[in-house]
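MODEL INPUT / OUTPUT PAIR
PAIR INDEX: 1
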Amino acid sequence: MPQVRRCKRNGCHALVSAGTYFCDLHKADEAEYIAKLNQRASRTKYNTVTRNATDAKKERYAFYRSKQWQSIRHQALERDHYLCQYCKVIGITTANSRIGDHVTPYEVAPDMSRDVNNIATACKDCDNVKRKLEQRMYGTGTDNLRNTRTRLSVADWALLINKKKDEREGL
């Protein structure tokens, strides 16, 4: 027996096949209903709970989607010739790196967020390890910042990242 459901129109108890929402009598309402479903799906809980939870997070999210950030990031990538700067410090060449990473995180020093000298090109692996180190060191991503006076250079970060990678690989 095929799967059926009730018509979505209030008060209508007609059964329709599972692929449709309205019976033949109320078929005209279906396009509007589907549009509302799609609109609702695009407003995810993640955006309201995480990205837009506070004014600071809204501002940071907007910055990373701005043309200004795209321009700064592009300048840094071109300057570094798309080579991961953290790998480069330890003598490894990782080409085609496309992540513009704030050496001092945005949350720790928002005033440095637009400084191209605070942006380093990073590969995915280094960026992921550095993000975890930042979370432990500064408390980034938790709304519980601490130790915000510490500033590390690319070379300092590279050594910490390399040490963490060696631990991960059991070396």
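PAIR INDEX: 2
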Amino acid sequence: MGMGMGVMFMFISLSKPLKTLSPIRPPKRLFHWSFILTIISQIIIHFSTLFYFISLAEPHIVKDESFKPDADFKPNLKNTVVYIFNMTCMTTNFFVNYEGPPLTESITENAKLKKVLMALYGIIIASALDVEIVWEYLELVPFPTEDFCYKILLALALNVGLCYYSSKFIK
């Protein structure tokens, strides 16, 4: 996950400026009301999703020695859903908050960034589905039921969609 975030930062910094001036003007202040409302809406959406994931995972968790402080790491369902959520949250923040015009090329024109975002979303979907090689590599545990998997995927899709559309609506 850290490598993916680092690569996205690199491709954002390498995005090219527009060749011609855009008719859209950027906000005059850093603390513009649209930025603040966008961030607040994303925080609300992300925390709502996180609380939903934890409430979904709690009934399936068996408390054992790994829950004690200073115990060795042992993957469990809560770790898995929080990891998948965290990866989705960070990828979505890059996707939603990347401005593009009027200053730089849009996300569709920034091919490298677009490919990294698609790859990260692919890993997220593979993590949420029962792709064994991904589970083993990331030290995740399988979901208890197929219904649980669908609930996680639906919540992730809603998280991304709500963040994107709330940001576009506010701006």
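PAIR 2 NOTE: The helical segments are 2-13, 33-57, 77-97, 111-128, 132-138, 146-170.
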